[in-house]
Specification:
The structure is a homodimer of 784-residue chains. With 784 residues, chain A is an alpha+beta fold. Chain A has a ten-stranded antiparallel sheet with strand order 1-2-10-11-12-13-20-17-16-15. Chain A has a five-stranded antiparallel sheet with strand order 9-8-14-19-18, with no helix packed on it. In chain A, strands 21-26-27-28-31 form a five-stranded antiparallel sheet. In chain A, helix 5 crosses helix 18 (669-683), helix 6 crosses helix 8 (426-442) and helix 10 packs antiparallel against helix 12 (525-536). The radius of gyration of chain A is 27 Å and the shape is globular.
Chain lengths: 784, 784
């Protein structure tokens, strides 16, 4: 049981549970893709892990190698906890409000998915018996990307009480580093050097610069105070702290109300005065809109989002809540990224050092493409903005075109272990795949000309130079790492080869669409015929003896993992077994061949899919949060609908239940996105091979109705699925044509209802010993 | 041209060449396997790289990882430059003798392979015009392993001259570290902490302890002085310095003679007083033997060695010298190791951090086995003494038996990059191979019972647990790295599989010979049948299309390296290309499949050998010094005798010509040993498959006669080869039976002369563009 109260449109936590703060802070994080704030208590302490993030703002540190190698990245990047503007401390007649002391008669925090506001309500009795009601609301604006705002209200409940509120901008908050590397810990101990501070009236600005990466940021605050006349305020500032102190005697039942407006900005280039001006201008905009105005804008933004994106689940309230939370956080991660990356944890925590991975393109962008396409476009524009770094990287590696980094904040490779980093070249095909998907789903011709064609061409060039034609068996791509991180540096990884094949074909198509762009990029007929030939002759290994595809060459000849004798605390395996042992055995961390079955389903027969799925199902341990969603999709396609449901639930609840034990460091965006995939591509059977939208919906026994929304080429539609039928609704826009279980359907003004054929009847696959779906194993006895 | 004067029994350098000191110091290094001293000038400066080493004495430092992994070694070990006792400084009337100042009228250093003494003779004129003749002799005793001695003689040539000699023990000499890792550099900056110092009369002792590894060492010195009456001496000591100062006025033509005796000891357990006592006792022994006695013992030891080991070459004086130097240094590396490792650089420099690798067992021990078998036995006893660490390592890796480290000083794995370290499991089979070879060559039953059987059993257990039976193709060993470091973590490396097969069979044979030992080790019939079955069904991949063995699974399907477009300064490739690119292409750093053709020649037909050799010859770049010797062996067997000669010369001259540009850090023991292999196994065609000694000698056109000696089961023999005949001489011991080109021969008191059949006629193989043998490319124009 997650501890959260189950409601369809809100996430709510009703107790204090100091030892669970790290979890709730991540789940209650607010962000807009540019600015993120963990859901910490207003008073700053107790805290699980403090965190305020500006997308793209990082500190640099050297990467140490006991044995160095040519082309190893020398500098690492780590997201910085920037100036914390959300702190509002309260003194109640000399007693600081601290949830560890005194008594909380009531205390709850609520994140509302429709208003986009995090509410906190605490009725607190101080150790000396003073009772106050504290109500706070916090938002990070979707409409004004530099802005956050807090309404902080305190009401004495019994006597006139002296209240002192301290509203801070605090830089270089102490953080307990968990890094094993002393250099990283040092780099992050106090990363910000003060450059400028100023305060006057209710307003203050701090400007800082990172010590190594040399990035500059400004944080500014302004306030509105609503209280009686006896108010006394004082503002002060120094390098790492600006503080507005508000003191007042408030009568019982009266309320001291403070509205705090926050604005942030950062730049690698702009001066301290320019950044200060930028933050103050954003602040002026926020004050002009006002608190009520910001609330209204926030809700309007989300109304539109839910119209495009909502998922309804009948029969499983906890799953309903989890799916809306997932969509809400994906929107928060991508909405206003505007040519910055979408990190693996969004802006909800410092996990993965704040790096972006292939997670974004393969898992998050499909969701955004079909629900908030402009955000998908912006994320791809970030990749495009890093093309120069990717070309440089390809050159260092002796390759042509662009080799995108395995992990990065600014576009430069930060992966210090190349077999599970640089070798995972598939990230470049994943970017091409996301680019092609966005183009097909939107028909965005400007993007095609200005960004997409170049992305597709440069990644196609990478594949042409990575592979080679061999007399034995066609076009091979050797020595690379596929999605499964328990196997590395292998030949002809099926996922990689098929995604590269698609990449090459998409590049050819893009050059046909945009011959001028192709010419400007120097694409010749000879080069195009190289691509066509490589795609045509792409080698896909197959094990005739077992009748399945090996995930990569020879995989099915490797020793089986001894699951029976692997103890439960032996997972995740990578913390308890050496890489060499994982790599050489048939144990799969996360969907790899099965992901190919989904994304390149057009390259497999239904019989192959059924056999392959069953084979890998028995060898996949899901030590990665990226896996369950994809397994749900393919389980559904292969007719294992109850299993699909179990994996859907696992993906959706990964963070709420903290299945990986690391939600403290932020939410797993790809897992949240995987939950959406499990619904839409899994239960909905949505596919987009070749840019064509098709459906093949089916429900598991445990759910009575599922409805999901998406947009395609400007049309918003809703698909409603029951056990017997699916109904296709046009929400807005022009009618579109699709298919339902292979039958053509025109979705127009009148809903179309179609019957659902019986599921394919394949034998139930088995998971490795002890690795059944997490929700499945407990579903029967679970109440929430 | 190497710069050394070519003489058959001496290595001589006749100029000062300060910029060449790093080279000459390595070549002139003296050692006995326990104590090593680089050939630095007596006065300490100028110096290439100071170095005094005690085998097994190291400092520890943490190994940093930007991304850590389970089972990664946490501590590194690095050989320590211990207290320097060879320093003798000279003041000539106020002017310090320094070869960078004044004028050297003559200056030469000579290492004599028969006396084992390094001589230096310098006629020096001080900047103010005083002329002196300095003659020094230095030895590190083969017979008294803790002892070194120096005879230092100064003769004023024109006037009575005041001479001051300072004889030092100096700890923590400043060294310029070349490590990229600041932690390693720091650990080695001043590794020794003074624990005790004492001096009296002409004698002094310093005791130190390493700061991290906690090893303790003592260095002691004593002196005899032969001079006129006006002598004044003073002895002093402090933590890091003990100094005897000798001042005297010496008449022209008279000689001040100082004999310095040095003794060293170290221990991980013994106390400072105990170590002091140990060093002083060794000193007492040395003084009792006296300088002349030490000289006599040294020469007697070497007389015996050369009787057993000498190689004669007619037609190539530089090669003759290089081969004797090689044998001399191998004797120095192994003679008195006594259960310590033989490091990759011997005790000639700090290269490879002082670690021992598989080089020892595969390259150095065959030489010692057939020339100084007790030293081979002692080196294998070192491996046996580390069995516990190897068992622990196997357990960490989830394997049975013993997994010996890739690189180590004390037996614990120090390799920080597992694909080229831990994954190179073949080191354990190499140890088994060396063990079996020693047993067959000596019939040492005590060693068999007490050490060998356990080594063979525990390594066999490793292979049984590393491999698995697969329905596709028998017993596979997946995910390991073979000898070629430009390919890593592969399946069914042919070398590894065949050496493992031999390992399993040798273990079975050992258990048959020593059933009691086998029982004590818990070997059951079931286990033996597992070994037998694995050996029987060991998979050896073969490429039917190309008709060659792939070095490992799929190797021959990989892309070819573009040698034509690889510039000369692109070598060594690992410094200029990323691992990922090297690993995925057909480029070979060093003999791998070709080493299998040599060591497991019994597993290949002559036709296979010829085709395989040609195939790999075209893809092997020899970026490793381990390669040329093996290529010489197989070139000879395949009938390419001129090529064998070229590779023999390359192996022999690797260090004299500084082919790898790193001789500063010490001599490459394996390359020196490879030169011996090139003569004996190459031109001599010596093989020892199944413990049977056989010969198949043939000469290249450029040599008129080659003679080599070796011992087998207590018999010393000499094989003399001309173009037409080979003559087998019994040097001492019982007659033995062998074969000559397949014909049985009994070598008894009368020499047997047999004709040499024509060489097989295979097409001349090609090397990669620009990677022809180094000597071959220049042979025509070379004078030395």
């Amino acid at each position: 049981m997650s501890g959260f109260v189950v409601e369809p449109w809100r996430l709510r936590w009703e107790t204090i549970d100091v030892d669970q703060l790290h979890r709730t802070e991540s789940a209650f994080a607010l962000a807009n893709g540019h600015l993120g704030m963990r859901g910490s208590l207003d008073e700053g302490e107790p805290v699980g892990l403090p965190g305020t993030y500006l997308n793209g703002f990082y500190e640099e540190h050297s990467l140490p190698y006991a044995e160095a190698g040519y082309g190893y990245p020398e500098a690492g990047q780590t997201v910085v906890n920037v100036t914390d503007g959300k702190i509002m401390r309260l003194l109640v007649e000399d007693e600081p409000l601290d949830m560890r002391y005194g008594k909380a008669h009531t205390h709850h925090r609520t994140l509302d998915f429709r208003t986009g506001v995090l509410t906190r309500e605490t009725e607190w009795e101080s150790p000396t018996g003073r009772r106050v009601l504290v109500k706070t609301r916090r938002l990070v604006s979707f409409t004004q990307r530099a802005v956050a705002a807090i309404r902080y209200e305190v009401t004495p409940l019994e006597d006139t009480t002296q209240l002192v509120v301290q509203s801070d901008l605090l830089a270089n908050e102490p953080i307990v580093s968990e890094s094993r590397d002393p250099r990283v810990a040092l780099a992050l101990k106090s990363p910000l050097a003060g450059e400028f501070h100023w305060s006057e009236g209710y307003r203050a600005v701090l400007v800082h610069r990172t010590k190594e990466s040399g990035l500059r940021m400004a944080a500014a605050m302004d306030h509105e105070i609503d209280a009686n006349d006896g108010l006394r305020t004082e503002i002060s500032c120094e390098d790492d702290l600006a503080r507005l102190t508000i003191a007042a005697d408030i009568a019982a039942g009266e309320t001291l109300s403070v509205t705090k407006y926050l604005a942030y900005g950062w730049s690698a280039q702009r001066s301290a005065p320019a950044l200060r001006a930028q933050a103050e201008a954003a602040l002026a905009g926020a004050r002009q809109t006002g608190w009520e105005g910001l609330l209204a804008e926030q809700e309007a933004f989300l109304d539109d989002f839910w119209e495009a994106a909502d998922v309804e689940i009948d029969g499983d309230p906890a799953l309903q809540q989890a799916l809306r939370l997932a969509l809400f956080h994906i929107a928060q991660a991508g909405a206003r990224g505007e040519s910055r990356a979408i990190p693996g944890k969004g802006l909800t925590g410092p996990g993965y050092d704040g790096h972006a991975f292939w997670d974004t393109e393969t898992f998050v962008l499909p969701v955004l493409t079909y629900t908030m396409p402009d955000a998908a476009r912006d994320a791809l524009r970030w990749r495009h903005s890093t093309l120069e770094a990717a070309r440089d990287r390809a050159e260092v590696l002796g390759k042509s075109g662009a080799a995108f980094p395995w992990r990065s904040i600014n576009g430069a490779e930060c992966s210090a272990y190349w077999p599970a980093g640089t070798a995972a070249f598939h990230v470049s095909a994943d970017i091409a795949d996301a680019t092609a998907r966005y183009l097909a789903a939107t028909g965005d011709e400007d993007f095609d000309r200005e960004y997409a064609t170049e992305l597709l061409v440069e990644t196609a060039r990478l594949w042409a130079s990575l592979g080679h034609h061999d007399p034995h068996d066609g076009f091979r791509i050797d020595g690379v790492t596929g999605p499964d991180e328990y196997t590395a540096v292998v030949d002809n990884n099926v996922y990689t080869n098929l995604m590269a094949q698609k990449n090459l074909r998409e590049a050819l198509a893009a050059c046909e669409r945009n011959p001028g762009v192709a010419e400007a990029l120097g694409v010749t007929d000879a080069e195009k015929s190289v691509w066509a030939d490589a795609a045509e002759r792409m080698h896909v290994p197959y094990d005739e003896l077992l009748g399945v595809h090996p995930q990569a060459e020879a995989f099915t000849q490797h020793e089986e993992w001894d699951f029976e004798n692997t103890p439960e605390d032996g997972y995740p395996l990578l913390l308890n077994y050496p890489y060499f042992e994982l790599y050489r055995k048939q144990v799969v961390k996360q969907a790899d061949l099965v992901l190919a079955l989904h994304l390149r389903g057009d390259a497999f027969t239904p019989e192959e899919k059924a056999r392959d799925f069953a084979y890998y199902e028995a060898r996949t341990v899901r030590d990665s949060s990226l896996s369950a969603g994809t397994q749900a999709v393919m389980a559904a396609e292969c007719g294992h609908l109850d299993l699909a449901y179990d994996y859907l639930a696992e993906a959706a609840l990964t963070d709420l239940d903290d299945l990986h034990g690391n939600v403290k460091n932020g939410l797993h965006m790809a897992s949240l996105a995987g939950a959406w995939q499990a619904v839409v591509a899994g239960l909905g059977g949505m596919r987009d091979h070749g840019g064509e939208l098709t459906f093949a919906p089916r429900l598991p026994r445990g759910l009575s109705r599922v409805s999901f929304r998406m947009s395609f080429r400007g049309t918003r539609l809703r698909v409603e699925v029951t056990h017997d039928n699916a109904t296709y609704h046009l929400v807005s826009g022009d009618p579109i044509t699709t298919t339902h279980h292979g039958e053509p359907v025109e979705i127009g003004p009148s809903p179309v209802t179609l019957g659902i054929p019986p599921a394919p009847d394949n034998p139930t696959p088995q998971q490795p010993h002890g690795r059944e779906p997490r929700r499945g194993a407990r579903r029967a006895g679970e109440s929430s």
